């Protein structure tokens, strides 16, 4: 009989539909997956993902940022929820709210984000439109550790997709999101299972990840 893995306790932060969240909740159900999603938080009470999380049996709460006078007090409310649930890792999945430097630094090496471009290209918003405008022929998504500078943290995993003649932002984003749903569970497994860690501003990968490149998805 194999020994069950110790699962890291993960919170997912969302602001919207939560399709990446769903892929992570599903991955977390596998007995040999090294993380489980135990809490979902949204800064927007109307985020569709909250109901999807509850339907999956995961506690899901809104912390409306509009109810707080400043970012620091909103982040303190987040922190209280995370402490209450014994969270070890934070996963940002379409969380569209800037966190304070103090919060980010408190979670250094324990908070990751997915961004819909091949970073360091196209930081910020409207990534698919900007990729089309730039005329790149490869686009994709990136999982990175969160640092105070937006979309600039050390890269854990990337997936590439082609940009095809005739693409618009909708067809391109539909191609990218399929890869996001594969990449994010792979990247979280790598981190929660000890295959990648933040070390002095760089990602240190295990020998197995160096050999297999399991967190690089390409054509
Ligand atoms: C995803 O495409 C994610 O990469 C992006 O928001 C979408 C959320 O979709 N995140 C960002 O742009 C972060 N800056 P989802 O709610 O269906 O997972």
Main features:
219 residues, alpha/beta, 8-stranded mixed sheet, two-stranded antiparallel ribbon, binds glycinamide ribonucleotide
Q: What does the main sheet amount to?
A: 8 strands, mixed
Bound compounds, each kind once, are: glycinamide ribonucleotide
- Count every beta strand, where a strand is a DSSP E run of 2 or more residues: 10
Q: Which term fits the overall shape?
A: globular
Q: How many helices?
A: 7
The CA-CA distance between the termini, in Å, is 37 Å
Radius of gyration of CA atoms, rounded to a whole number: 17 Å
- The helix content, as a percent range, equals 25-40%
Structure commentary:
By secondary structure, the chain is of the alpha/beta class. 35% of the residues lie in helices and 24% in strands. It contains seven helices and ten strands. Helix 1 runs parallel beside helix 6 (169-192). The mean pLDDT is 97. The structure holds glycinamide ribonucleotide (GAR). Glycinamide ribonucleotide binds at residues 14, 16-21, 49, 93-94, 114-116, 141, 177, 180. Glycinamide ribonucleotide (GAR) binds next to helix 1, strand 5 and helix 6.
